[in-house]
Amino acid sequence: MGKREIDFDVQAMTFKKILVAVDEDDSSSSRKAFSYAVTLADSYHVPLGIVTILETRDLSIYDSLQPDVLDQRREAMSKSIDVYVKKAQDFGVNHVDGFIGEGKPGKEIVQNIIPSFNPDLLVCGSETKEKNSIFIGSQASYMAQNAPCSVIVVR
């Protein structure tokens, strides 16, 4: 068998809209994913979406039935997203949107946030702190397999 020649032209690939998932526990891989997404959005001059998910499964039955507890968690997450949005803007990204979802992170991002924001790239971290806890990172595999856009997983 002879060598087969591969003939194609390399074409520049850029993204038009980037979504980054950050976890509420602010893991190191989540911060790295955020930094990577902000750097890309700034260099490509494209909109950036930042999403975090309130993992209602982490709440006790008692807490989940207490409106005040849920409201406090939502308020804390809203403030956290505002910090991320401000950091991205300070870095130079002109168009930044923050999103908060509730439920299982991978499923919520793939089924609700991505269709709403319509990115062509999703960036997420991959770190998990505990095997029995669902963080954004442990959902990276689900999102990579099910997202309708390209996915970059940052460690």
TrEMBL record:
InterPro entries (UniProt xref): Rossmann-like_a/b/a_fold, Universal_stress_UspA, UspA
Sequence ranges assigned to domain UspA in this UniProt record: 15-155
CDD domains listed in its UniProt record: USP-like (cd00293)
Origin: domain of life: Bacteria
Family: Belongs to the universal stress protein A family.
Protein name per its UniProtKB record: Universal stress protein UspA family protein
Native source organism of the sequence: Paucilactobacillus hokkaidonensis
